Amino acid sequence: PESAASSLRTPIVAVLGHVDHGKTSLLDKVRGSAVIEGEAGAITQHIGATAVPLDVISGIAGDLVDPDDFDLPGLLFIDTPGHHSFTTLRSRGGALADIAILVVDVNDGFQPQTEEAIEILAQSQTPFIVAANKVDTVPGWNAEENAPIQKSLERQSDRVRGDVDEKLYEIIGQLSDKGFSADMYWRVQDFQNNVGVVPVSAMTGEGVPDLLTVMMGLSQRYMKEEMAIDVSGPGVGTVLEVKEEKGFGSTIDVVLYDGVVEEDDTIVVGSSGDPIVTDVRALLKPRPLAEIRTESRFEKVDRLKAASGIKIAAPDLDRAMSGAPVRVVRDREIDEVVEEVQAE
Ligand code: GTP
Ligand code: MG
């Protein structure tokens, strides 16, 4: 229902995992664009945010999702880089997230950055599911584009199904070694205490309906109260990137995870020195399904609420720092907000 959706915050979903295990490809499949092709060396160097509205999710999930069952507005996905040198970007993405997808290549299983991601999720107590990706690469796999995974598995020969099962149980075993009780997602009743494993292929789209269904279910069931937090208060977010933007000067790409930001708001932004106190000159919003990192045509908005990826143009932002907090002052004392930003 429209009214409920407008009062609930969009859950933030971080996509984490080892380099090349298919994080960007998976998101790419979901948003149907080709960000991956524009990436230098196919390594994601920066975090991007992508908003996917509920109607798109239910379109992809087909029979698995009844949009009437949900009053969340959609999901905000944050892609993170798997390359070992980007630990801070990964932990920033993990810490921001309400829920997460841990992408694991079924052939490679757990790798160093898989383990690192699990530790970030455990530390921040972020509920997550595992996308066991690249099932299409199992020799003899008989693909059916975009099919729900159980339907796909039924199509496979006994030998292929046996091979897939073996790989999946290896991942389940590795999760259990890390102290997580895990099982195939369709056997998991309680996603808060058990990790569901969803076999997927970012290439053929198989299992993607399941993945989105489980993410929506997880958000709706366990995140609801948090989602209903004050989405009308002063905005709070984290700086992902500081960028020069033609015609706007220095800007910051921000994931807004709470409250509202408005044009002309005074904001306080963390920097290497004293926090920056400045006035918002323009709020630049990527269109739904667009990737903030590659989107050049932004829509100027006068107001935006969490959760969203937003580009903020304001004077003095060149000193802002990736990973720093952003807080809107609104009716509060500036000094008090500056202190909060300093303490974060
Ligand atoms: P980083 O951002 O560098 O950490 O990598 P990533 O996890 O985003 O991986 P990416 O999506 O760039 O995929 C890496 C490679 O695996 C690309 O060549 C993809 O085409 C390929 N790939 C990803 N998913 C699948 C899949 O499900 N099946 C097959 N066959 N190939 C895949
Ligand atoms: Mg990537």
TrEMBL record:
Which terms are listed as keywords in the entry?
GTP-binding, Initiation factor, Nucleotide-binding, Protein biosynthesis
The Gene Ontology terms for molecular function here are: GTP binding; GTPase activity; translation initiation factor activity
Annotated Gene Ontology cellular components are: cytoplasm
Instruction: Please tell me where GTP binds in this chain.
Output: 17-24, 79-83, 133-136
Q: Give start and end of each Tr-type G domain.
A: 8-223
Give the protein family: Belongs to the TRAFAC class translation factor GTPase superfamily. Classic translation factor GTPase family. IF-2 subfamily.
Per its database record, what is this protein's job?
Answer: Function in general translation initiation by promoting the binding of the formylmethionine-tRNA to ribosomes. Seems to function along with eIF-2.
Protein name, entry field? Probable translation initiation factor IF-2
Residue numbers of the full-length protein present here:
7 to 350 of 601
